[in-house]
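Review this:
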Amino acid sequence: MAITAYRLWFDNSPADEARLALIEEIRVDQAIDMVTEAQITIPLGRDDTGDWPGALDDAIRPLTRVRIEVQVGEGDFVPLIEGRVVAQRFELAGGPNESQAVIVVNDESAMMNRTDRARLFEDMSPEDIAAQVFGEYGIAAETETSGVGAPSLERVVTQRGTDFGLLRRLAREANMVVHVEPGSAPGQSTGHFRRLPLDDDGLPELVLTGLERNVNRLVLELDVLSGVTARANDVDPASLDLLEAEAEATAHALLGETAATEDTGPGIVFATAPGGDRTLLDAAVQASVDRGAFAWSGHGEVSAEIYPGVLRPYRTVAVAGAGTRLSGRYLVSEVSHSLKDMGYTQTFTLRRNATSAAGGGLPGGIV
C-alpha cells in the first residue's frame, strides 16, 4: 500500500505540525475551464468562556496565499493548487464535535477576476495579450501561437470587463484554453494560453481487471447527440465580401483509431465570431466541432492504496480492461482530491473523442 503525504504552505511558509494536526480534510476540485478551488476543514469546539478557539486563525486570514502539494508512494510531490483564501465559512452547532471552519482557496486566476477594466490592445495577437496580462499579476506565462487575428494596424481588441474574463473570451474565440496552475515553487503560478493538450503525460494507467487492477468501478457513456457540423458566415467590413466557414471533423488528435462520432451522424450548428475576421470565423466553427467530438465520457474513483499517481485536468491517462474498443487514452477533464486521515481518494471525469480498433489493447495484453 502506497503511503500518501501532503505539504501545506501559508504565505510561502510551511505549515507547522500543530496546525496540520488540526486539519480534518483537504478537498481540491479541479476541472477544465474552471477555477481550481480547495476547501480546508478544521473542527471547532467551544471553550469555557463560550468562545470558538481557532475560528479566526491569524495565520489564515482573507487573501492569505495557500499552496497544497500531495505525494503518493515514492513519487514526486505534485502541486494541486497555489492561490488565495477567498472565503471563510463557519458551520456552528450546539452539539459536540459538530462544528467546523472551512477555509476556501481559489487559484490565482481569481485575483484576475476581481476588477473590471476598459482598455485597448492594438496590433497584438491573443497570445501576446495573454502574456502581457499574466505578467501584470506576476504570473509566468506559457503561450502557444493561436493563428487567429494576425496582427495588423487595423486589429484592435477591446476589453470591458475583468482581465481573466478577457483571456477567457480570447481563448474561446481562438479555440484555445486558458488556465492557471501552480508553479514549481511556493509563491509561483504559471498561466497557460494554449491548444487543448492531448499528449501522453506519463500518468500510471487506470486498470479495471487482472492482478494490476487499481480502479474498482468506471462508468463510460456515449453521447450520441454530441457530434456536430458547424457553419458560420459574416461580412468583411473592409471589402464587404461574404465570409463563409464550415467544419466537419475535429482538428484535435484522436485518442484512438476511430472518431467517436463516426457512426452517430452529426447535427448542424451555426457558430458566430466577432469582427468579420476570417481566422476567427474559421476558429469558431472548428471549436464547435472539437467540443462535440468528445462524445465519450467516464467517471470513477481511485484511492492511493491501489493507484500510484496523481490525476489532474489537461492531461491524458490510459484506461485498460474496458474492452478492446473502450480501452485506450482519455483526457482527464475533472478531478476532486480528498485528503483525510483515512486516506487519499481521487474522483475523476474522463473524456474521449475516439474508440480503439477492435482487437486492440494496451501493451501487456490487458484490454
